[in-house]
Amino acid sequence: MIKDFTSIKKNIFKETNSILKTKKTKVFNSLDNVLKTYKEEYKYSPLLRKVSKKFDILKVDSYKEKKKNIDKKILNQYKNQYSIITINGLFQKNESKIPSGISVNTFDKLNNTDKKIFHKFFNNQDDSKNDIFTSINTINYKESLLIKIDKNYSKKNHINILNFIISNSGESINHIRKLIVSNQNSKSVFIEEFISLDSIENFSTSVTEIIQEENSEIEYLSIQNDKNNFHFNSINISQKQNSISNCFTFSYSGAVVRNNLNIKLKEKNCYSNMYGFYALRKKSHVDNHTTVDHIDENSISNEHYKGIMDNNSNGVFNGKIFVRKKAQKTNAFQSNNNVILSDEAKINTKPQLEIWADDVKCSHGCTVGQLDKEAMFYLQSRGISKEKAISMLLGAFSEEIIEKIENQFAKQKIKKITYKKLEYFTS
Amino acid sequence: MLEIKNLHVSVNNNKILKGLNLSVNKGEIHTIMGPNGSGKSTLAQVIAGRKEYKVNKGSIIYSNKKLLELSADERAKQGIFLAFQYPVEIPGISTTNFIKTAVNKIRESKGKKSLDAVSFLKIMKEKMKIVKINQTLLSRSINEGFSGGEKKRNEIFQMAMLDPKLAILDETDSGLDIDALKIVAKGVNKLKSKDNATIIITHYQRLLKYIIPDYVHVLIDGKIVKSGDKNLALELEKKGYDWVRA
Is 0.80 topped by the overall pTM? Predict the structure, then answer.
């Protein structure tokens, strides 16, 4: 465990921007407090000990802007698609392909107007006061991105956010940081992936803050499909009037993943969908922590996570709904369904509701079960092998989440990945 | 084709079948009748390969193979088909996809090539006519939201697609109105050939108006207590099961 944070203090001294310096200092000063909440927040995922044994997690790798090349074959998979590309947390402008109507820049390259926007929102929405990994990210990130979506932007095509990690030169600790501002009436789709380009174990954190102005709509998919990555992901969304967010989190057999998804419905008539699917084998550990905070009236939040655990894998779901006193006429739904395939697999699930308003409609619940024996026999009695029957039933289980994806390209992509992964679930 | 000898089966330590004997030859239609709880469905499920049923004693030989050593999917590949009394609803898998997978898995096991989409569709359209089932139903999830009659017709449709050697219809007639009953019966008759055999499990003789069985067996308390021809069914309808028990 970490006892001494002084080693990261020098990163704050290095910060040349005074506003950022102040923000980072604040985060640094609250580190002891954050560690106190760690025990509760990571109750079923004692990961800090695990990762701090493997990695010097407070360390910052010393490289900067070293030229790195990504195998053409890998980039070809994303040919003719819009992509924002980072390598080890550093933005690769030349490799990226960004549609008109969206601007992507690192903090250093921002003009004064954009700098003001950045300062207005940066670190104000994230969970650095509650999550030790977000705190470390906030102090230690090397480069932060501002992704600005213009008013009325509405290209149907998705935008990939591809975070490549190359550890083979000893750089196994990476912090990815970005702020997305989705302006009025804009509509956009992002598919974010984390991809290790070698087989060396690495530790990464990614913190994303998303600001949704009035009437904006965003579909944000996060895919974790990397067995060498000890990954801590925090997505924080703040929504204004009439905005819509559709978040999807897909986690497949990986080493260790923690996802925090925090949504603040700050104004009236917001709509938020949170969907997740996890399919875990071997010693994978995936922890999904979500909060949705209904601050003003007449908003809807809808959450559904489903998961499959096989072998010795470990799943955690913790969903919190807050309905503040002012948030009358709130509709908030939450559910979590799990299928356990082996005696050694484990799921800890905890749906939570805190309601202060009196005129609301809320529900929450969770289920843990096994494959339906009747359905298995029905499929097998038609000549379908046990293995194939299992993967068909698990595929059907995933459908309910996948079919909610609006963007057709994203839906087909996820479907393909999911069904391929499910072929290995045969116990 | 099928030779069942002294079959003893239990579920959760309840003895259900207690020394059942049955012999079915190619080209024959057998009917098994009997009161509730006599073991009719258990027999059907055991032949199809349901693992939860424990065979304590006896043997089933099917086409010179020891059937009990095969898994459910292997039995289907050998030509055994069970039309379920309660077809299972499986949300998220389309009926068409499911049947296509089944047809191709069975073809594969015989060393035949998988059907491509076009030729599969062609065969499907042909067989759909037999049971008067429509395409929109088949594009939906397996049995999900199907009416009772639609579920039963879907079973016969699958039977038509899989072209089994031995078909067991487990109370396929129950819950059907007279029109649906006729459609199902017509389907069964159409699919009958001199190379395959059918076992019909039923409570009533009304299906037997449309499908003429070669043999009728009465199953009571886990044993076949009486066998005869189609006239036995008529007699049972008149006199009830107590008549055979006595």
Answer: yes
